[in-house]
Description:
6-stranded mixed β-sheet, homodimer, binds adenosine-5'-triphosphate, binds magnesium ion, 29% strand, alpha/beta, 4-stranded antiparallel β-sheet
Amino acid sequence: VIQIDDAVKSYLTGDVEVRALDGVSLRVEEGEFVAIMGASGSGKSTLMNVIGCLDKPTSGQYALAGQVVSGLSRSELADIRNRFLGFVFQQFNLLARTTAVENVELPLVYGGVGSRERTERAVSALVKVGLGSRLDHKPNQLSGGQQQRVAIARAIVNRPKVLLADEPTGALDSKTSVEVMALFQELWRAGMTIVIVTHEPDVAAYAARIIVMRDGKVLSDRAQNPA
Amino acid sequence: VIQIDDAVKSYLTGDVEVRALDGVSLRVEEGEFVAIMGASGSGKSTLMNVIGCLDKPTSGQYALAGQVVSGLSRSELADIRNRFLGFVFQQFNLLARTTAVENVELPLVYGGVGSRERTERAVSALVKVGLGSRLDHKPNQLSGGQQQRVAIARAIVNRPKVLLADEPTGALDSKTSVEVMALFQELWRAGMTIVIVTHEPDVAAYAARIIVMRDGKVLSDRAQNPA
Lengths: 227, 227
Ligand SMILES: Nc1ncnc2c1ncn2[C@@H]1O[C@H](COP(=O)(O)OP(=O)(O)OP(=O)(O)O)[C@@H](O)[C@H]1O
Ligand SMILES: Nc1ncnc2c1ncn2[C@@H]1O[C@H](COP(=O)(O)OP(=O)(O)OP(=O)(O)O)[C@@H](O)[C@H]1O
Ligand SMILES: [Mg+2]
Ligand SMILES: [Mg+2]
């Protein structure tokens, strides 16, 4: 469902070139649960942004659900994202002026879901991540870990084919992390494909495959028994 | 150096009252290294904001370095913060339009330090956190962990009496976390008072005292042998 061939992402700052991705090839089959690890600055978020159709590689090819992504227009990309992907951003990217429920409803608004069903599904997703008592809070009325959980609820409310999560437990205490990973496990067993960036071995242990990145390249890629 | 008596922080959302702090008393002596832990939403960042003079409690008293903070004007508070405190925010709070070096120079600009010395000290702080090759990058040209390290460099560049760090290793891989904690340990041994919020036991292990919060209260407060 994810096929990346030789992706390079290069930035020019002044006359210094930084290769955030330096020739990455990756194939993820439907239904896999993959963890991506690696040092700070090794290219994990850049790779996630390419997979999530949020960023175009400088060179290389990317196909999502069989469709080559490189040629598509901005609205076609937005469409593909809404149909297939759920994305938990490393820095959450919530809308500051709207409540938790409204933030979580957003993918459903885009997808044309009716107002009553939208609210029911958004509330249900927020309850799943333990935020039933924070529905009408805006992001600046929420703790860091609560904001992260709103971002998670928003990523799963559309029942995406592929869930992409960049450090989804970074701001969570261990008990809440376990609850979120149990939720991901449940979604995976129901058929979702999951790619998660994490620094924490305890979180990576839930995956069936671990990819380690270094300096914009894939260092290792191996299967494991998920916890 | 930190004396909090019975602090309450109460928010009214609609007609629901949320007590982010529900009667917290705390005394930290100069030269201590304290770790604050607790579940997501338990009041850790709220407590840090009160200690950092960024937020006034609804009721209760706070004295920093012997001076009662409650009566002070906004500019007097800004002054006290610049003189005594370094703050690493949970969400970094970097200035988006300026480079890493300029962000780190900010406390020195406020403190009236000359331009040449400012740049030298900012560069030196950034090199200490491993960002010597990212000096002229703006925040959106940095990875999550790199942004966090810029926030750390900014907090220590002024050689504050008290370093307050809210989840300073949240976005860092284990190797970089160890480097940052070793830096904090070095600063502590040279006399800095450090209060750090963390979810990670490995990070809390560096402290000499652990405070656990729950539902806006202090659940436990005990000394330990620092690692
Ligand atoms: N402006 C606000 N209005 C209403 N409630 C608020 C506001 N700010 C914080 N809260 C609530 O206060 C509680 C404590 O928040 P705080 O940010 O201190 O938690 P925390 O311990 O830092 O959590 P985390 O580990 O997730 O960062 C949370 O339940 C939050 O929803
Ligand atoms: N817009 C940009 N311009 C220049 N360099 C960039 C830009 N965006 C990212 N980089 C660089 O690309 C590299 C990879 O960044 P990326 O965000 O993918 O790292 P990461 O593995 O997610 O790190 P972390 O674990 O800290 O989040 C970093 O060294 C970063 O400085
Ligand atoms: Mg990242
Ligand atoms: Mg917090």
